Amino acid sequence: MSKSLLLASSSIALFLASSAFAVDEVFDTEETSIRVTTLADGLAHPWALALLPDGTMLVTERPGRLRHVSRDGQLSEPVAGVPEVDARGQGGLLDVAIDPDFQNNRLVYLSFAEAGEGGNGTAVARGRLSEDMTSLSGVKVIFRQQPKQNSTAHFGSRLVFDEGGYLFVTLGERSSVQFRGQAQELNSHLGKIVRIHPDGSVPGDNPFVGQEGALPEIWSYGHRNIQAAAINPQTGVLWEIEHGPRGGDELNIVQPGANYGWPIVSLGINYDGSPVGEGIQQAEGMVDPSYSWTPVIAPSGMIFYQGAAFPEWRGNLFVGGLASTALVRLELNGNAVASEERLLEALGLRIRDVAEGPGGEIFVVTDQRNGEILRITPAG
């Protein structure tokens, strides 16, 4: 092949990889047939969805934009009032969640990479969404990960409210070998899940409240990079799925004060092929994962499905897969994974987040320069 033809072919491949095409396809799954359609496209690396009570939604774009999406997929202009973000590498505007009492207070929560002294880190802000969906007012940062580090990776960043109105924030350990060990240190937010009140204050029953040298907002520790988290509606307990290195993505059922091992133990290895730490996979006092993946799926976003559209899937766990380019369905038997199925693999799209619509339809966002919101409904 000539050099010019090779360059042309490469350019076409790059264009195809970065472009979105309207999807309208039917797929057979193990238990039913589904129709997958494009609700909206033209989004720059969308990261998260939040459904509003009226059936519309908010979507974040990693470069720093929040948009309102109508029921028929019309995208608004960027919502005003979003904090400035550090949109390098994996950073930017990340998760979005609405207050449990949104219908009365209209509060919206955003997680994002925030620059500052020492580098950057995950922060959480909240503001009041205007009635016309065009702006946030009274925006205030309610939590900042400390210490900030010079890294563009592993911000974690999922926001999850539990039934008691407490807010969980997942925090990555910022990746680098030189400071990822702080995941084991209780005076650092790196590699932690924190639990706070919606105004950022610390609940008095958090496990490390009153412990000398420990940050009181910490709920659990020893995590790597959690981008999937949800409350199990049957138990009220937080579940999370975190990225492993080469191998060892972990599903964990989170208990207060528990240590999940990173980087002392891991089911994977470093990207250069070397062992993580001493290469051990278990250690006393550190919780083993409930389920794991090697090779990795690269998890991002998850829901416990409760809808009416797919009654055969009620109670299943759905997880977005980035490296696996799949929507991963886990059938559960209590707290154990009974079976796994991978959906949407034929589309070859990185699934960044998952949400359930008011009619039980499933929405996913695709992590692309021209990203899409896809809607999954029963076929026929």
What's the topology here?
Elements: H1 3-18, E1 24-28, E2 33-43, E3 46-51, E4 57-61, E5 65-69, E6 93-98, H2 102-105, E7 107-116, E8 119-129, E9 136-144, E10 159-161, E11 167-171, H3 177-180, E12 192-196, E13 218-221, E14 226-231, E15 238-242, E16 249-253, E17 291-293, E18 299-304, E19 317-321, E20 326-333, E21 336-343, E22 351-356, E23 362-366, E24 371-378
Antiparallel strand pairs: 1-2, 2-24, 3-4, 4-5, 6-7, 7-8, 8-9, 10-11, 11-12, 12-13, 14-15, 15-16, 16-17, 18-19, 19-20, 20-21, 22-23, 23-24
Question: Explain this structure to me?
Answer:
By secondary structure, the protein is mainly β. The chain has one domain (23-378): 6 Propeller (Neuraminidase). Helix content is 6%, strand content 39%. The chain is built from three helices and 24 strands. A five-stranded antiparallel β-sheet has the order 1-2-24-23-22, with no helix packed on it. The model is unreliable at 1-19 (pLDDT under 50).
Count of DSSP H/I helices: 3
**Mind telling me the CATH class?**
Mainly Beta
Briefly note the structural class of the backbone: mainly beta
What is the N-to-C order of secondary-structure elements (H for helix, E for strand)? Answer: HEEEEEEHEEEEEHEEEEEEEEEEEEE
Would you tell me which CATH topology applies?
Answer: Neuraminidase
Distance between the first and last residues' Cα? 46 Å
Report the major sheet: 5 strands, antiparallel
For CATH, the homologous superfamily is named as: TolB, C-terminal domain
Name the average pLDDT. Answer: 94
Name given to the CATH architecture = 6 Propeller
Spans where pLDDT lies below 50 across 5 or more residues: 1-19
Overall shape: it is: globular
Helix-residue proportion? under 10%
